[in-house]
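Continuing the series of single-chain predictions for the mutant panel. This is the parent chain; the variants come on the following pages.
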Amino acid sequence: MKLSQKMLKAGWSITKEKDGNFCVYASDGIKYTYLTATDSWIEPVEEIEAELDRQLKEISENKRSPFISASRMTSLYHSKNASQPIKLLCEKRLLQGKSVLHLGTGLDNLAKQLLIESGCAEVADYDPNFYPDTSVLERQYGAVIANYVLNIVPLDDRKDIYKLIKDALKKNGIAYLTVQGIWPVKNKYKIIKEYEDGYLIKTGYNTTFRKGYSKEEFLKEIKQILGGNPRLITMFYSNPFVQWVKQ
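Parent structure:
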């Protein structure tokens, strides 16, 4: 498929559909379709090349991360149930009356309605692949939720996300953070090699980053980067779910 190697370098997600055609997901909510029967793109090739060159240039200038783009491949479909962290937050009504930023929403498309029903004053979604409206990051919230976000990017990108979380919170605002544990990362994926403090794994045609945390390591990382006193709320199997309060 023409342009595929450059697309993978940019972190664009390439998926083969049941009809044999390919869907390519760039960051910023962009999608392209390649028709195998005609060996051609539905969209103008010039348009695709221009966007690809733009994003690759931003990557070379450290203005964009290919891991953030490729993180689309780590998103899970929740067609019948919301994720466990969202369900717990709603069942215990931990966000009642709060404005909430759901960071890295992914495909947890039931979350917003459930959070509103549990008493949240408002919920804003942000995800570079699915909800790319950055205007929601220009204000502060009473709470930030980031589920399985910090474990899918290397340390430099994680530091940027931690900063985003801190900046998005009001004083005494609360962050609820969930990451994958060590066991699922080492046992559920095809590991290509070690990379920084995690692994590069194979996901379809793509290579993505994954890190597994012990509860002790996650609490230590949060304290080192954000300060304060993060607190473990519970474990979802081996996955730590932590609360941090902005002082």
